[in-house]
Write a structure and sequence with these properties.
Order of helices and strands: HEEHEEEHEEEEEEEEEE
Largest sheet: 6 strands, mixed, barrel
Shape: elongated
Number of helices: 3
Number of strands: 15
Distance between the termini: 36 Å
Helix content: 10-25%
Strand content: 35-45%
Length: about 250
């Protein structure tokens, strides 16, 4: 009985630790932010999360590239953050912005962490789109101290599944994810198969090597906070590679 009690206590501690480490609307933390991509943010298109055209995908210019310490090898793609400029009366503007992680800010080991190597480990750093940066700081600042925190992502409509690849190589890009925003596991089910765990190829592109042509497809998505949403028969049996289908959203559950 004592062993069972200890195991139950350990399980509760693990669950609480997971929820705490992935909590939304948590406390503010101090880091720095820069900007890139030009005044219309065209230089932010594409990126390491695989979202492609950020305008058509609904992310717009409220986006950020994350340093390695925040990017988590791509698992943080889709996460949402609030930022405000702090402790610099010369360059800071009043206001708070909300951005989605859509890209990676690589390290520059040729420069010191405090002199150009802003995204070098172990620094946590946000490289904002220029339009987003200009809402909280002046252009000439270049780099400013900011406070940030994770917040829930508010998205319009359902989660989107874009099916790329070819037979025996189904590469599904998942976008427009509400709630925690960052997808940590995905399962796919054909109308003639059971549930199969997908592997993350890169960014938020998830891969299945099964032959699923001619089958309607369902998806089960798990976010970083442990919440799960299942979208049944999202893609009809006549789906084709290159098509995008809309599923359920975390706000629906």
């Amino acid at each position: 009985m004592q062993i069972m009690g200890n195991l139950m206590l350990l399980s509760i501690i693990i669950i609480l630790s997971f929820r705490t480490s992935h909590s939304l609307n948590g406390g503010w933390q101090n880091v720095h932010a820069t900007f890139y991509g030009g005044e219309d943010a065209t230089g932010t298109m594409g990126g390491a999360c695989g979202y492609g055209n950020l305008y058509s995908e609904g992310y717009g210019t409220s986006t950020a590239a994350l340093s390695s310490s925040l990017f988590n090898n791509g698992l943080s793609c889709g996460a949402c953050y609030q930022l405000r400029c702090v402790d610099d009366q010369k360059w800071c503007l009043h206001g708070i912005i909300t951005v989605t992680a859509t890209n990676y800010c690589p390290p520059n080991y040729a420069l010191a962490n405090d002199n150009g190597g802003w995204c070098n480990p172990p620094l946590r750093h946000f490289d904002l789109s220029q339009p987003a940066f200009l809402k909280i700081a002046q252009y000439r600042a270049g780099i400013v101290p900011v406070a940030y925190r994770r917040v829930p992502c508010v998205k319009q409509g359902g989660m989107r599944f874009t099916i790329n690849g070819h037979s025996y190589f189904n590469l599904v890009l998942i976008t427009n994810v509400g709630g925690a925003g960052d997808v940590h596991s995905v399962a796919i089910k054909g109308s003639k198969t059971g549930w199969q765990t997908m592997t993350r190829n890169w960014g938020q592109n998830w891969q299945s090597n099964s032959y699923l042509d001619g089958q309607s497809l369902s998806f089960r998505v798990t976010a970083s906070d442990g919440r799960v949403v299942t979208s049944y028969n999202v893609a009809p049996s006549a789906w084709r590679f290159g098509q995008t289908f809309r599923g359920r959203q975390f706000e629906d559950i």
